[in-house]
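Could you help me review a protein record that somebody else here produced? This is what I was given.
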Amino acid sequence: MALTERDVLDAMESVIDPDLRVSVVEAGFVKDVKIDGSDVAVTLELTTPACPVKDQLKEEAVRALSALVNGGKVTVTMTARVRGFTAVAGLMPQVKQVILVGAGKGGVGKSTVALNLACALRIQGASVGLLDADFYGPSLPTMTGIARNPTSPDGKRLDPLDAHGLKLMSIGFLVSADQAVIWRGPMIHGALTQLLRDVQWGALDYLVIDLPPGTGDVPLSIAQQVSNRARAILVTTPQEVSLVDVTRA
């Protein structure tokens, strides 16, 4: 009997995503099923190019389909399409996901984690931006080695800096290294809104936001503006003095 798409989908039901605990069929990952005699080709479209189990899923899919075709050729292509949240669209229409990286305490490696996370996602094939939202202690210029100023082609919106495959923005790109930022809450809130709304981030799979330490005006403003469905990562060291603060955060 000739193979059908239903036969292929039934075979793929045995491939279970270990995180979602459902089959790749139920999760909607199986796309573009092609059948040519006893040869089968399918595409698995994951929700992130950085999926840690994509190799495992591919191996299981090949094994399941090989048992189905009994000697035919099996081709499994892995792709990814990051899903966006509509709640983010009002502020940054083309940014699909926001990842907040924060800490209750300074000096625990938060900015290092944010930059490494952004780079890792980029290496996996995602389009990524990184916003340094620490107005009083911006570290992105130093960590990336970027010292130039962003440009504004229309005089209204800023273009982020392109470096290391990332789109970058920091207050540190707008003020000199020896200039203190002596701003109170309302000014910080306004500047933050501008960096979110008036920077031409373009189409991004992920915008990683490096928050300042604590739970002051900037973290609260960002949490209110981006979405209550943005992902958040809190960074701490093992010491109790850090764990206590990050728990409060």
